[in-house]
Amino acid sequence: MGTNHTSSSRLATSQRPYGSELPALITAPEADTPLSSLLPMQREIETVVERVGGVLLRGFDVPDVSDFRAYAASFGHPLLNYEFGSTPRSEVSGGVYTSTEYPAHQHIPLHNEQAYTTQWPMKIWFHCVLAAGQGGETPIADSRAIYRRMPAEIRQRFSNGLVYVRNYGNGLDLPWQAVFNTEEEAEVEAACQRLGIEWEWKDDGELRTWQYCQGVAQHPRSGDWVWMNQAHLFHASNLAAEVRETLIDSVGVENLPRNVLYADGSEIDDDTFTLIRQVLAAETVIFPWQAGDVLMLDNMLAAHARTPFMGPRKVVVAMAEGYGWQPG
């Protein structure tokens, strides 16, 4: 790619499905090459991202998070705020956030960012400021390949859409104030109306919402069909067995912090998610982070995850180019 940079798909991985090109690798020609040296090649990089799903920029000098922020913003779309979140994050600098703040020992499964809504970023960047001493990788997977590999019956059922159910607060999930970035119930209701979310204020003052969303989607530029949901994260089968049993006994299925249903409101059985998780695992690519790495993904074409880790780790995230899905 260009005359001064090396483009290669030969990235050392600990796991990669046959035929996968993720991520395409672009390495700096020499030490101290600034990340900004890639600015003249943005169109080429975007072309590779749309073909492969993601690009790893390795060996470039990224002195500060502000340099990463400037690079992500230079693609022509304002960086997005993290709104209607499902996981805790902290803003580092205008439009740059910490990666999901889950405990280090927990695994975060593959997902496309904000695929539990009908609005998501098309572009997402990760910057490894500090690699963990052990683990802490950001596995990725081709969402087109996941769609193709998924059993036809599951793919068909999910193509009709899904309904996500959320019960906020009560110490079980994020409070609605944090998710909607407001203390005002009227502002929550306005946001729900705008986003096509049904809501209910429960007797204890907490909020329950339902939202009809896509299970699969068609990429607006490439036309490719992709697996585009977070059903396996929201379904009760994602909970440890003893936690799930305790929660259902104490609050009932209807008050679980999160759940997901078929479009017609019927339950999705555990066996379906066993098969889904097997497909996700089969398409996963895992590579070790190096400090300074920048990973750019098309958020519809590539899903991402996080492995457990030990020791300090700092990976920051930026998102851009909002897209809204409309039922067909």
UniProtKB/TrEMBL annotation:
> What superkingdom does the record give?
Bacteria
Co-factor(s): Fe(2+)
Q: Does the keyword Oxidoreductase apply?
A: yes
Q: Does the keyword Oxidoreductase apply?
A: yes
Secretion signal span: none
Going by the UniProt record, its keywords in alphabetical order are: Antibiotic biosynthesis, Oxidoreductase
The UniProt record lists the TauD/TfdA-like domain at: 35-318
The name under which this protein is listed is SyrP
Organism encoding this protein:
Pokkaliibacter plantistimulans
- What phylogenetic lineage does the species belong to? Bacteria, Pseudomonadati, Pseudomonadota, Gammaproteobacteria, Oceanospirillales
